[in-house]
Amino acid sequence: MNKIKSFFSSLIKKDATKTVVTSIWCALLGLILGFLILLVINPSNAGYGMTSVLGNYLIFSSHSDRINYFGQTLAKTAPLIAMSLSILVSYKAGLFNLGASGQYSIAVLVICLLGSGANWPWFVVMIIAMIAAAIWSAITGLLKAFFNVNEVISGIMLNWIALYLVNGILSNAGKTIWDGAHSESVAITSESNSFIPSIGLDKLFAGNTIVGLGMILILIVVIIIFILLKKTTVGYELKATGLNSDAARYAGISKVKSILIATAISGALAGLAASLNLQNGFTTWRLSSVPPEIGFQGISSAFLGGLHPIGVIFSSYFIMHITEGGSMITDLGYSPETASIMTSVIIYLSGFVFFIKEVMRKFEIKNELNKLSRNKENKV
Hints:
By secondary structure, the chain is an all-alpha fold. It is built from 15 helices and two strands. The chain has a two-stranded antiparallel sheet with strand order 1-2. Helix 5 (100-117) runs parallel beside helix 7.
Protein backbone atom coordinates (compact mmCIF):
# COMPACT_ATOMS: atom_id res chain seq x y z
CA MET A 1 0.00 0.00 0.00
CA ASN A 2 2.84 2.35 0.88
CA LYS A 3 4.52 1.58 -2.44
CA ILE A 4 1.34 2.50 -4.34
CA LYS A 5 0.99 5.69 -2.32
CA SER A 6 4.63 6.55 -2.94
CA PHE A 7 4.24 5.86 -6.68
CA PHE A 8 1.26 8.19 -7.05
CA SER A 9 2.94 10.82 -4.89
CA SER A 10 6.02 10.85 -7.12
CA LEU A 11 3.83 10.79 -10.24
CA ILE A 12 1.90 13.88 -9.14
CA LYS A 13 5.14 15.77 -8.52
CA LYS A 14 6.34 15.24 -12.09
CA ASP A 15 6.19 18.27 -14.37
CA ALA A 16 4.55 16.27 -17.18
CA THR A 17 1.73 15.19 -14.86
CA LYS A 18 1.12 18.76 -13.75
CA THR A 19 0.97 19.88 -17.37
CA VAL A 20 -1.61 17.22 -18.27
CA VAL A 21 -3.73 17.96 -15.18
CA THR A 22 -3.73 21.72 -15.71
CA SER A 23 -4.45 21.39 -19.44
CA ILE A 24 -7.44 19.14 -18.75
CA TRP A 25 -8.65 21.52 -16.05
CA CYS A 26 -8.48 24.52 -18.41
CA ALA A 27 -10.30 22.59 -21.14
CA LEU A 28 -13.08 21.50 -18.76
CA LEU A 29 -13.49 25.01 -17.37
CA GLY A 30 -13.70 26.37 -20.89
CA LEU A 31 -16.38 23.84 -21.80
CA ILE A 32 -18.39 24.77 -18.69
CA LEU A 33 -18.20 28.47 -19.55
CA GLY A 34 -19.13 27.62 -23.13
CA PHE A 35 -22.21 25.78 -21.92
CA LEU A 36 -23.21 28.82 -19.83
CA ILE A 37 -22.92 30.97 -22.96
CA LEU A 38 -25.29 28.61 -24.79
CA LEU A 39 -27.72 28.77 -21.85
CA VAL A 40 -27.77 32.56 -21.94
CA ILE A 41 -28.32 32.77 -25.71
CA ASN A 42 -30.82 29.94 -26.19
CA PRO A 43 -31.58 27.84 -23.07
CA SER A 44 -33.87 25.37 -24.83
CA ASN A 45 -31.16 24.09 -27.17
CA ALA A 46 -28.15 24.44 -24.85
CA GLY A 47 -27.98 20.71 -24.14
CA TYR A 48 -28.17 19.77 -27.81
CA GLY A 49 -25.65 22.48 -28.63
CA MET A 50 -23.14 21.18 -26.12
CA THR A 51 -23.68 17.65 -27.41
CA SER A 52 -22.84 18.87 -30.91
CA VAL A 53 -19.69 20.65 -29.74
CA LEU A 54 -18.42 17.65 -27.79
CA GLY A 55 -19.67 15.02 -30.20
CA ASN A 56 -18.56 16.58 -33.48
CA TYR A 57 -18.65 13.70 -36.01
CA LEU A 58 -20.29 11.36 -33.47
CA ILE A 59 -23.66 13.14 -33.78
CA PHE A 60 -24.17 11.70 -37.28
CA SER A 61 -26.30 8.58 -37.47
CA SER A 62 -24.61 7.22 -40.59
CA HIS A 63 -21.37 5.32 -40.03
CA SER A 64 -19.90 6.60 -43.30
CA ASP A 65 -20.69 10.20 -42.30
CA ARG A 66 -19.00 9.73 -38.94
CA ILE A 67 -15.90 8.29 -40.57
CA ASN A 68 -15.88 11.02 -43.20
CA TYR A 69 -16.10 13.88 -40.71
CA PHE A 70 -13.65 12.21 -38.35
CA GLY A 71 -11.12 12.15 -41.18
CA GLN A 72 -11.88 15.79 -41.89
CA THR A 73 -11.18 16.72 -38.27
CA LEU A 74 -7.90 14.79 -38.32
CA ALA A 75 -6.80 16.41 -41.58
CA LYS A 76 -7.61 19.90 -40.29
CA THR A 77 -5.66 19.18 -37.12
CA ALA A 78 -2.41 18.72 -39.08
CA PRO A 79 -1.90 22.42 -39.98
CA LEU A 80 -2.66 23.45 -36.40
CA ILE A 81 -0.03 21.03 -35.11
CA ALA A 82 2.51 22.57 -37.49
CA MET A 83 1.62 26.07 -36.31
CA SER A 84 1.82 24.97 -32.67
CA LEU A 85 5.30 23.60 -33.27
CA SER A 86 6.23 26.93 -34.84
CA ILE A 87 5.26 28.76 -31.64
CA LEU A 88 6.90 26.07 -29.48
CA VAL A 89 10.32 26.18 -31.13
CA SER A 90 10.60 29.96 -30.92
CA TYR A 91 9.42 29.95 -27.30
CA LYS A 92 12.05 27.38 -26.34
CA ALA A 93 14.66 29.86 -27.57
CA GLY A 94 13.17 32.65 -25.47
CA LEU A 95 11.20 34.25 -28.31
CA PHE A 96 7.47 34.82 -28.72
CA ASN A 97 6.48 34.33 -32.34
CA LEU A 98 3.50 36.62 -32.86
CA GLY A 99 4.51 36.92 -36.50
CA ALA A 100 3.43 33.38 -37.40
CA SER A 101 0.37 34.66 -39.28
CA GLY A 102 2.59 36.74 -41.53
CA GLN A 103 4.91 33.81 -42.18
CA TYR A 104 1.84 31.73 -43.01
CA SER A 105 0.68 34.43 -45.44
CA ILE A 106 4.00 34.52 -47.27
CA ALA A 107 3.84 30.75 -47.69
CA VAL A 108 0.30 31.12 -49.04
CA LEU A 109 1.59 33.52 -51.69
CA VAL A 110 4.12 30.94 -52.89
CA ILE A 111 1.53 28.16 -52.86
CA CYS A 112 -0.98 30.18 -54.85
CA LEU A 113 1.52 31.33 -57.47
CA LEU A 114 3.41 28.06 -57.90
CA GLY A 115 0.60 25.69 -57.04
CA SER A 116 -2.65 27.10 -58.32
CA GLY A 117 -0.99 29.34 -60.89
CA ALA A 118 1.90 27.23 -62.28
CA ASN A 119 0.70 23.76 -61.14
CA TRP A 120 4.11 22.69 -59.83
CA PRO A 121 4.55 19.32 -58.01
CA TRP A 122 3.17 19.40 -54.46
CA PHE A 123 6.45 18.64 -52.67
CA VAL A 124 8.33 21.34 -54.59
CA VAL A 125 5.65 23.89 -53.74
CA MET A 126 5.70 22.82 -50.09
CA ILE A 127 9.49 23.09 -49.76
CA ILE A 128 9.66 26.51 -51.44
CA ALA A 129 6.75 27.77 -49.31
CA MET A 130 8.55 26.66 -46.15
CA ILE A 131 11.79 28.33 -47.28
CA ALA A 132 9.96 31.58 -48.10
CA ALA A 133 8.26 31.60 -44.70
CA ALA A 134 11.58 30.86 -42.99
CA ILE A 135 13.24 33.80 -44.75
CA TRP A 136 10.36 36.09 -43.77
CA SER A 137 10.62 34.92 -40.16
CA ALA A 138 14.39 35.44 -40.23
CA ILE A 139 13.74 39.17 -40.66
CA THR A 140 12.39 39.19 -37.12
CA GLY A 141 15.41 37.17 -36.01
CA LEU A 142 17.86 39.58 -37.61
CA LEU A 143 16.17 42.60 -36.02
CA LYS A 144 16.22 40.89 -32.65
CA ALA A 145 19.78 39.55 -32.85
CA PHE A 146 21.55 42.64 -34.18
CA PHE A 147 19.35 45.57 -33.15
CA ASN A 148 17.52 44.11 -30.13
CA VAL A 149 14.15 44.94 -31.67
CA ASN A 150 11.39 43.25 -29.70
CA GLU A 151 10.23 40.21 -31.70
CA VAL A 152 6.61 40.71 -30.67
CA ILE A 153 6.47 44.22 -32.13
CA SER A 154 8.35 43.37 -35.32
CA GLY A 155 6.33 40.16 -35.73
CA ILE A 156 3.00 41.98 -35.50
CA MET A 157 4.13 44.66 -37.96
CA LEU A 158 5.36 42.01 -40.39
CA ASN A 159 1.97 40.28 -40.13
CA TRP A 160 0.26 43.28 -41.68
CA ILE A 161 2.99 43.87 -44.23
CA ALA A 162 2.75 40.26 -45.36
CA LEU A 163 -1.06 40.35 -45.46
CA TYR A 164 -1.28 43.43 -47.67
CA LEU A 165 1.62 42.24 -49.81
CA VAL A 166 -0.13 38.92 -50.48
CA ASN A 167 -3.49 40.60 -51.09
CA GLY A 168 -1.96 43.04 -53.54
CA ILE A 169 0.03 40.48 -55.51
CA LEU A 170 -2.74 37.87 -55.70
CA SER A 171 -5.45 40.35 -56.63
CA ASN A 172 -3.33 41.56 -59.54
CA ALA A 173 -2.05 38.10 -60.44
CA GLY A 174 -5.62 36.87 -60.66
CA LYS A 175 -6.20 39.10 -63.65
CA THR A 176 -3.38 37.49 -65.61
CA ILE A 177 -2.74 33.99 -64.24
CA TRP A 178 -6.38 33.02 -63.64
CA ASP A 179 -7.99 35.41 -66.13
CA GLY A 180 -9.67 37.20 -63.27
CA ALA A 181 -11.65 34.11 -62.23
CA HIS A 182 -9.93 33.75 -58.87
CA SER A 183 -8.93 37.30 -58.07
CA GLU A 184 -10.76 37.15 -54.70
CA SER A 185 -10.25 33.49 -53.84
CA VAL A 186 -7.51 30.99 -54.68
CA ALA A 187 -7.92 27.23 -54.20
CA ILE A 188 -6.05 24.06 -55.14
CA THR A 189 -8.22 21.18 -56.34
CA SER A 190 -7.56 17.46 -56.12
CA GLU A 191 -6.88 17.41 -59.88
CA SER A 192 -3.84 19.67 -59.45
CA ASN A 193 -0.26 18.42 -59.29
CA SER A 194 0.13 20.67 -56.25
CA PHE A 195 -2.50 18.76 -54.28
CA ILE A 196 -1.00 16.60 -51.52
CA PRO A 197 -1.75 12.98 -52.51
CA SER A 198 -4.10 10.86 -50.41
CA ILE A 199 -1.98 7.69 -50.91
CA GLY A 200 -5.13 5.62 -50.43
CA LEU A 201 -5.99 6.98 -46.97
CA ASP A 202 -9.14 8.57 -48.38
CA LYS A 203 -10.62 5.08 -48.77
CA LEU A 204 -10.32 4.53 -45.02
CA PHE A 205 -12.38 7.66 -44.37
CA ALA A 206 -15.35 7.15 -46.69
CA GLY A 207 -13.69 8.76 -49.69
CA ASN A 208 -12.72 12.01 -47.98
CA THR A 209 -10.03 13.33 -50.35
CA ILE A 210 -8.55 15.83 -47.90
CA VAL A 211 -7.29 12.93 -45.79
CA GLY A 212 -3.88 11.94 -47.04
CA LEU A 213 -0.13 12.14 -46.80
CA GLY A 214 -0.23 15.41 -44.89
CA MET A 215 -1.37 13.60 -41.74
CA ILE A 216 1.65 11.32 -41.88
CA LEU A 217 4.04 14.15 -42.72
CA ILE A 218 3.06 16.15 -39.65
CA LEU A 219 3.67 13.18 -37.36
CA ILE A 220 7.14 12.79 -38.86
CA VAL A 221 7.77 16.49 -38.28
CA VAL A 222 6.66 16.17 -34.64
CA ILE A 223 9.20 13.37 -34.13
CA ILE A 224 11.93 15.45 -35.81
CA ILE A 225 11.22 18.47 -33.60
CA PHE A 226 11.13 16.25 -30.51
CA ILE A 227 14.53 14.75 -31.37
CA LEU A 228 15.91 18.18 -32.29
CA LEU A 229 14.99 19.68 -28.93
CA LYS A 230 15.78 16.66 -26.76
CA LYS A 231 18.72 14.90 -28.38
CA THR A 232 20.77 17.38 -30.42
CA THR A 233 23.34 20.06 -29.67
CA VAL A 234 21.29 22.62 -31.60
CA GLY A 235 18.25 21.90 -29.46
CA TYR A 236 20.31 22.20 -26.28
CA GLU A 237 21.68 25.56 -27.42
CA LEU A 238 18.21 26.85 -28.28
CA LYS A 239 16.84 25.89 -24.87
CA ALA A 240 19.90 27.21 -23.05
CA THR A 241 19.52 30.57 -24.79
CA GLY A 242 15.84 30.64 -23.92
CA LEU A 243 16.43 29.85 -20.24
CA ASN A 244 19.29 32.32 -19.73
CA SER A 245 20.94 33.99 -22.69
CA ASP A 246 23.76 35.48 -20.59
CA ALA A 247 24.66 32.13 -19.04
CA ALA A 248 24.48 30.52 -22.49
CA ARG A 249 26.85 33.16 -23.87
CA TYR A 250 29.37 32.50 -21.11
CA ALA A 251 29.13 28.80 -21.97
CA GLY A 252 30.19 29.59 -25.53
CA ILE A 253 26.73 29.46 -27.12
CA SER A 254 26.09 32.15 -29.72
CA LYS A 255 22.90 34.03 -28.95
CA VAL A 256 22.73 35.41 -32.49
CA LYS A 257 23.03 31.94 -33.99
CA SER A 258 20.35 30.52 -31.70
CA ILE A 259 17.92 33.33 -32.48
CA LEU A 260 18.40 33.02 -36.23
CA ILE A 261 18.05 29.23 -36.17
CA ALA A 262 14.93 29.39 -33.97
CA THR A 263 13.19 32.00 -36.10
CA ALA A 264 14.05 30.19 -39.35
CA ILE A 265 12.73 26.85 -38.07
CA SER A 266 9.67 28.55 -36.62
CA GLY A 267 8.92 30.26 -39.93
CA ALA A 268 9.41 27.04 -41.89
CA LEU A 269 6.86 25.30 -39.66
CA ALA A 270 4.38 28.14 -40.17
CA GLY A 271 4.92 27.68 -43.91
CA LEU A 272 4.25 23.97 -43.51
CA ALA A 273 0.96 24.84 -41.82
CA ALA A 274 -0.02 26.86 -44.89
CA SER A 275 0.87 23.96 -47.18
CA LEU A 276 -1.12 21.45 -45.16
CA ASN A 277 -4.06 23.83 -45.26
CA LEU A 278 -4.14 24.94 -48.89
CA GLN A 279 -2.55 21.94 -50.58
CA ASN A 280 -5.01 19.61 -48.90
CA GLY A 281 -7.80 21.50 -50.60
CA PHE A 282 -10.09 22.11 -47.63
CA THR A 283 -9.44 25.82 -47.44
CA THR A 284 -8.93 28.67 -49.86
CA TRP A 285 -7.13 31.97 -49.64
CA ARG A 286 -9.53 34.89 -49.71
CA LEU A 287 -8.44 38.50 -49.78
CA SER A 288 -8.78 39.54 -46.14
CA SER A 289 -8.41 42.59 -43.94
CA VAL A 290 -7.09 40.62 -40.95
CA PRO A 291 -4.16 38.18 -40.60
CA PRO A 292 -5.02 34.44 -40.61
CA GLU A 293 -6.31 33.36 -37.20
CA ILE A 294 -4.40 30.07 -37.26
CA GLY A 295 -1.31 31.94 -36.10
CA PHE A 296 -3.06 32.85 -32.87
CA GLN A 297 -4.68 29.42 -32.51
CA GLY A 298 -1.20 27.96 -32.66
CA ILE A 299 -0.22 29.97 -29.58
CA SER A 300 -3.12 28.57 -27.59
CA SER A 301 -2.53 25.03 -28.79
CA ALA A 302 1.18 25.21 -27.96
CA PHE A 303 0.51 26.34 -24.38
CA LEU A 304 -2.40 23.97 -23.88
CA GLY A 305 -0.06 21.18 -24.97
CA GLY A 306 2.47 22.19 -22.34
CA LEU A 307 4.99 23.39 -24.93
CA HIS A 308 5.85 19.78 -25.68
CA PRO A 309 5.95 18.35 -29.24
CA ILE A 310 3.84 15.33 -28.25
CA GLY A 311 1.46 17.41 -26.15
CA VAL A 312 0.56 19.71 -29.06
CA ILE A 313 -0.80 16.72 -31.00
CA PHE A 314 -3.51 16.23 -28.41
CA SER A 315 -4.15 19.92 -27.74
CA SER A 316 -4.42 20.68 -31.48
CA TYR A 317 -6.86 17.84 -31.98
CA PHE A 318 -8.95 19.00 -29.01
CA ILE A 319 -9.17 22.57 -30.32
CA MET A 320 -10.02 21.40 -33.83
CA HIS A 321 -12.55 18.87 -32.48
CA ILE A 322 -14.56 21.51 -30.62
CA THR A 323 -14.12 24.00 -33.46
CA GLU A 324 -15.60 21.58 -35.97
CA GLY A 325 -18.31 20.54 -33.51
CA GLY A 326 -19.09 24.16 -32.75
CA SER A 327 -19.67 24.88 -36.44
CA MET A 328 -22.68 22.53 -36.31
CA ILE A 329 -24.69 24.43 -33.71
CA THR A 330 -25.95 26.97 -36.24
CA ASP A 331 -28.77 24.54 -37.04
CA LEU A 332 -29.95 24.85 -33.43
CA GLY A 333 -30.68 28.54 -33.61
CA TYR A 334 -27.24 29.83 -32.65
CA SER A 335 -25.36 32.30 -34.79
CA PRO A 336 -21.98 31.27 -36.28
CA GLU A 337 -20.33 33.72 -33.88
CA THR A 338 -21.59 31.68 -30.91
CA ALA A 339 -19.33 28.77 -31.81
CA SER A 340 -16.43 31.19 -32.22
CA ILE A 341 -17.10 32.66 -28.77
CA MET A 342 -17.11 29.20 -27.18
CA THR A 343 -13.89 28.10 -28.79
CA SER A 344 -12.30 31.48 -28.05
CA VAL A 345 -13.10 31.09 -24.35
CA ILE A 346 -11.51 27.66 -24.25
CA ILE A 347 -8.51 28.85 -26.23
CA TYR A 348 -8.14 31.88 -23.96
CA LEU A 349 -8.13 29.73 -20.83
CA SER A 350 -5.34 27.59 -22.25
CA GLY A 351 -3.03 30.51 -21.56
CA PHE A 352 -3.45 29.84 -17.84
CA VAL A 353 -1.81 26.41 -18.01
CA PHE A 354 1.56 27.65 -16.80
CA PHE A 355 -0.01 29.99 -14.25
CA ILE A 356 -1.86 27.08 -12.66
CA LYS A 357 1.30 24.94 -12.76
CA GLU A 358 3.16 27.68 -10.89
CA VAL A 359 0.41 27.84 -8.25
CA MET A 360 0.61 24.05 -7.86
CA ARG A 361 4.39 24.23 -7.54
CA LYS A 362 4.24 26.89 -4.84
CA PHE A 363 1.55 24.93 -2.99
CA GLU A 364 3.75 21.83 -3.17
CA ILE A 365 6.78 23.73 -1.83
CA LYS A 366 4.68 25.14 1.01
CA ASN A 367 3.51 21.64 1.95
CA GLU A 368 7.08 20.33 1.93
CA LEU A 369 8.24 23.19 4.17
CA ASN A 370 5.35 22.57 6.58
CA LYS A 371 6.21 18.86 6.67
CA LEU A 372 9.87 19.60 7.42
CA SER A 373 8.83 22.06 10.11
CA ARG A 374 6.56 19.48 11.78
CA ASN A 375 9.28 16.82 11.64
CA LYS A 376 11.72 19.22 13.25
CA GLU A 377 9.25 20.03 16.03
CA ASN A 378 8.61 16.35 16.67
CA LYS A 379 12.34 15.65 17.02
CA VAL A 380 12.67 18.50 19.48
